[in-house]
Amino acid sequence: NAGVTQTPKFQVLKTGQSMTLQCAQDMNHNSMYWYRQDPGMGLRLIYYSASEGTTDKGEVPNGYNVSRLNKREFSLRLESAAPSQTSVYFCASTRASGGFQETQYFGPGTRLLVL
Amino acid sequence: GENVEQHPSTLSVQEGDSAVIKCTYSDSASNYFPWYKQELGKGPQLIIDIRSNVGEKKDQRIAVTLNKTAKHFSLHITETQPEDSAVYFCAASAGGGADGLTFGKGTHLIIQP
Asked: What is the pLDDT of residues A62-87, one digit of tens each?
């Protein structure tokens, strides 16, 4: 049981390049999330998906798109990377899809540097 | 939207002493308050959580208290050990089970030997 996995672990991009961050969970969780973590800022929600086929914006969605490919996988795409998107990106998942909040489990993160 | 303030940003305590980290939230509808521990180079890991219908919760050396009137919740770690050194985040959620969390900015806890 690997939990939440993310690829790649580290990526360097040039301004304007695109890339997709991959996330998968093997816990049969319903909801998945993308957060970014910047120094001194805590974690901020980018997008989330309460179930396969649905996605919703979080606090900082501009410049990103997401796809809930199936129940296991939730990808984050940067169409035209900017230096302001340099950050550590965390994927998370939880069993909850409604009702009460349950534990969110986090992946190990993807460190992205945009030059 | 929700806003979570966390203090202090850095906390240094002697091994064996207690540590207290405090958070306030703005949305009175918030009903779920988890605490996460993050070690260097890793993702956050839940250490304890509390719901709005409970005032206090304990798990061995860790406890969380919630004051809904003051919109304030705190993490208490007793008998601190070197492995407690990490960054701790509080968070809050006012939504349903699928909604995301709003995090505080974190506290770097340093345990001095």
From this structure: 999 999 989 999 999 999 999 999 99
Q: Residue A109: which of B43, B97, B105 has the nearest Cβ?
A: B43
Q: How far apart are CA B44 and CA B62, in angstroms?
A: 17
Written as one letter, the residue type at B91 is A
Cβ <8 Å between A103 and B49: yes
Are A4 and A106 spatial neighbours (Cβ–Cβ below 8 Å)?
yes
Per CB-CB distance under 8 Å, the chain B contacts of A58 are 100
CA distances from B49 to A115, B34, B55, B66 (A): 39, 4, 11, 10
Place of tokens 């340099």: A86
How far away is chain A from the Cα of B45, in angstroms, using its nearest Cα?
Answer: 7
